């Protein structure tokens, strides 16, 4: 079946818009997005950008979904290829640190940035950001539950995510060159007793 060239071009333009929108939002927040700015930067018409989204809120929601898809491809999918257990947990944590440290988005972790922006604002964007954050915590908790020696996977997930997010903050806000190294050391130290207990 032949794909309509206009449809394919439209989808390609949409992907380009959302990729740039996620890059901007990681630095300036979702409120920093505007249809006019994206049209200018990507050299497309305002009406063309508007036709894809229809409103600023829809642009924000679509940007969050696009950033989530990138995160899943880069961090989650490779880890889920590993059987449940310590190896999968290691891959999730290492993947997150590589995603933030490697500046998949120029502002570090996209979700760390927009959570701070929307944590106290009611609405659809906040709900979506909160849901994705809860899913990430749930994935770490469920993965930790399959690790021998873990008695409170929710607590462990809380601590591990705190290490990751602090590394992101120290790197982005304080330009700390050792932030990710420190986070990896903290993760190893926290998980070492579990490795000993499981051996």
Quick summary:
The chain has 199 residues and is mainly alpha-helical.
Largest sheet: none
The stretches of 5 or more residues where confidence is low (pLDDT under 50) are none
* Average pLDDT metric: 93
Radius of gyration from CA coordinates: 19 Å
- In CATH, the architecture is Orthogonal Bundle
Q: Report the principal-axis shape.
A: elongated
End-to-end separation: 55 Å
Number of self-contained structural domains? 1
Strand content: under 5%
Number of strands: 0
What does it look like?
The protein has helices spanning 5-28, 35-42, 46-53, 56-80, 86-101, 110-118, 124-145, 153-174, 179-198. It has 199 residues and is mainly alpha-helical. The protein has one domain (5-198): Tetracycline Repressor, domain 2 (Orthogonal Bundle), CATH 1.10.357. Helix 5 (86-101) packs parallel to helix 8 (153-174) and helix 5 (86-101) runs antiparallel to helix 9. The longest helix is centred in the middle third of the chain and has 25 residues, at 56-80. The chain is elongated, with a radius of gyration of 19 Å. It starts with a helix and ends with a helix. The mean pLDDT is 93. Keywords: DNA-binding, Transcription, Transcription regulation.
